[in-house]
Amino acid sequence: MGIVVLTMKASVIEMFLVLLATGIHSNKDVTKKIKRPKFTVPQINCDVKAGKIINPEFVVKCPAGCQDPKYHVYGTDIYASYSSVCGAAIHSGVLDNSGGKILVRKVAGQSGYKGSYSNGVQSLSLPRWRESFIVSEGKPQKGVTYPSALTYSSSKSPAAKTDEATKAYQKPPVPETTAQPVTLTQVTGATATGAAHASLPKPSPSAGSTSSSLRPQPVGLRSGELDLWATSTYTSGQNSPRADPGIQSWDSPRAAFQKPAGAQVSPGFVPKEELSTQALEPLSQGDPNCKIDLAFVIDGSSSIGKRRFRIQKQFLADVAQALDIGPAGPLMGIVQYGDNPSAQFNLRTHMNSRDLRTAIEKITQRGGLSNAGRAISFVTKNFFSKANGNRGSAPNVAVVIVDGWPTDKVEEASRFARESGINIFFITIEGATENEKQYVVEPNFSHKAVCRTNGFYSLNVQSWFSLHKTVQALVKRVCDTDRLACSKTCLNSADIGFVIDGSSSVGTGNFRTVLQFVANLSKEFEISDIDTRIGAVQYTYEQRLEFGFDDYNTKSDILNAIKRVGYWSGGTSTGAAINYALEQLFKKSKPNKRKLMILITDGRSYDDVRIPAMVAHHKGVITYAIGVAWAAQDELEVIATHPAKDHSFFVDEFDNLYKFVPKVIQNICTEFNSQPRN
C-alpha cells in the first residue's frame, strides 16, 4: 500500500512539472509577441470626427470619397474637433478625394473658426469649440510612436461597429471606497434633451475579486479617466447629446473626474470640470494687419554661451507676444543652427502667442559652429512648404540672428532665398571689432544677405543686453508688408496682357497653336488676385477684350478662358491694338504690379506702331514682341522694350512657338532680378 502511495505522488509531481514547463513556454511566447508589435495604420471612415478620438496625435488612413458635403468641416487650417477628420484633410490640401494617410495632432480650442472653400470642400464657421486639430502629410516623425489602434470616446470604434451592436457587457465591480464626491455647478439656461435624471449602477459589493473581471485598459488614458472610461463603455447607449455641442456628455473620456456610484445629475447642472473646458480664455485669431509666415533662424552655436542663449529665447518670446500670433495674422516657426540646422517647430505647430512662448522656453542649445548660410539654405528648401504651414497668400519672412559673425558664407544661400520670395532680415549682435574683422569669413555678410541694402532689413545690436530694445522696431518692419520686396518674384508680381493677332493670314489651326503658346506661358506664373494676373486682347482691324485682369484669379480658370477664345479673322492693325490694350487692360493694372505686354503677330502692321510703342514704354509697360512667319523683324524691335535683343523674338513656324516658352520666362525673370537692391 505504501508503494502505491509513493507511485501516485510521483505521478502528481511529474504532471505538475510538465504543466509548469508548458506554462513557462507559453508565457515566453506571449512575451515575445508583446515585445514585437507591428505598427499598422488604422483606417477610419469619412464621418469620424476628431473629437471622438482620444489620442492626442495619430496617423490614420482615410478612404476615398470623403469630399462629400455631408461630412462637415469647421474652420480653415485649424479645425474644430467636431469636424470630419478626412474632410478636413481634403480641405487643407493634404489629401485629395482618393484618400490616403494623414498625421493628425490635437491642439487647443479656438475662440472662433472661419469657414472657407478650398479643394472642393466648403468648411463652415463656428463661434468657438473646446478642442482643435491640424492635419499634415502622413509621414511619421522619427522617435514618435503612433498607436496602431485608436482609442475612441465610446466603447465602439466607428471603423468596426458591425458585430458589436448585439454584444452586452457587464460592468466590472468597483470598490465602494474608490468613489469620490464631485462638485456640481449650475449653468443658467443649460438644458438636457435626454432623460430628466441619469444615474449609474451601484458598484458590486464583491470588491475583493475585481482583477478577474476587469477588461484590458485602453492605451492613452490617464489614471483619473479610467473609471469614466469603464462607465462610458457600458452606459453610452443611455446618453443623449445636449443642446449645447460645446458641453461634453457623461461618457466623454476627456472629462477628467470620476462620477460617484449612484450619483444623479439633474438637468441644468454640469460638473465643474466640464464647465472649465468652455470657460477658456478666448484665444486671439492673430493680427490681420500683420499676416506673414515668419521663420526665426536662431544662433545655437557654442560661442554664444548659455546666458546669451537665454537672452535670445526671451527676445523670441517678447517678439511672439508683440506679434499677436494667430491663424488670421502672423504665424511663426523657429530653426536653430550650430554645425547644422534643425527645425524646432514649424508654422502650424503653435497657433497663438501663449503656446508659442511656452514652447520657446523649452528650446535647448545645440552647440557647434555658427553656420548661418547652411541654415538659410535649409529654410529655403524645407521650411516654407505647404506641409509646414506655409499659406501661400502671406509673405515669407526669415529673421536670422547671428552672434558676432557666421562661420560660413551666406551670400549664395541668401540670394537663392530671395529668388524664392523669402524676405531675409539679419540681426547681428556684438559684431566684429576692427581687430576681429580679419577672422570674418565673409566681409559685409549682412549686406550681401538682405533684400535691400538701405538698412531696412539689417539690425546691428551693440550688446546682447540691448537686444530687448529692438523688439518693437523689428515687429514694425516685418509687419510692413508693402516694403517686403522679396515677397515679389518674377512669377508672382506682374499684370500680364497678351495681345494676339487674329488676322486672316494666321488661320484657324495656327490660331489654336498661338493660344496653346499663351497657355504654356501662363502656366509658369503664380496666378491669383494678389499674385500675377492675366488678361488678353485679340485684334484684326478692330480689337476685342477677351478677358481682363480682374475676370479670373486661378490658374485653371485662366487656362479655360484661353481655350474659349474664338478666332476672329480680318486685317492687321497692330498699332491700334497696342493703344487698345493700354486703355482696356493696363489702365486697370494695380500700382504695385509690373506691367508686361506680350504681343504675338504673324505680319507687318497696316498702321504705324512707333507712337503707340513709345506711349507704352513711357507708361512703364514692358513689351515683349514675338513674330511668326511673315512678321517684320524691324517692326518687332520698335515695339519691344529696350534692349530689343532681350524683348523681341522671331519664330519661323507656328509649330516652333513652344520652344520659346523657357527663353521668354528666363528673360522676364532675369530682368526682374537685375533690378537694383537699394
Write the layout of secondary structure elements.
Blueprint: H1 2-35, E1 57-62, E2 75-76, E3 78-80, H2 85-92, E4 100-108, E5 117-118, E6 121-122, E7 131-137, E8 184-186, E9 198-199, H3 226-235, E10 264-265, E11 269-271, H4 272-278, E12 293-299, H5 305-323, E13 331-337, E14 341-345, H6 353-361, H7 372-383, E15 396-403, H8 411-419, E16 422-429, H9 445-449, E17 458-461, H10 471-478, E18 494-501, H11 508-523, E19 533-539, E20 543-547, H12 555-563, H13 574-584, E21 594-601, H14 610-618, E22 621-628, H15 633-639, H16 644-647, E23 648-651, H17 661-673
Parallel strand pairs: 12-13, 12-15, 15-16, 16-17, 18-19, 18-21, 21-22, 22-23
Antiparallel strand pairs: 1-4, 2-3, 3-7, 4-7, 5-6, 8-11, 9-10, 13-14, 19-20
Helix pairs in contact: 5-6, 5-10, 7-8, 11-12, 13-14
Descriptive report:
The protein is α/β, with parallel strands linked by helices and 678 residues long. It has helices spanning 2-35, 85-92, 226-235, 272-278, 305-323, 353-361, 372-383, 411-419, 445-449, 471-478, 508-523, 555-563, 574-584, 610-618, 633-639, 644-647, 661-673, and strands at residues 57-62, 75-76, 78-80, 100-108, 117-118, 121-122, 131-137, 184-186, 198-199, 264-265, 269-271, 293-299, 331-337, 341-345, 396-403, 422-429, 458-461, 494-501, 533-539, 543-547, 594-601, 621-628, 648-651. The strands form six sheets. Strands 14-13-12-15-16-17 form a six-stranded mixed sheet, sandwiched between helices. The protein has a six-stranded mixed sheet with strand order 20-19-18-21-22-23, sandwiched between helices. β16 (422-429), α9 and β17 (458-461) form a beta-alpha-beta unit. α5 crosses α10, α7 runs parallel beside α8 (411-419) and α11 (508-523) runs antiparallel to α12 (555-563). It starts with a helix and ends in a 5-residue tail after the last helix. Binds dermatan sulfate and chondroitin sulfate. This is Vitrin.
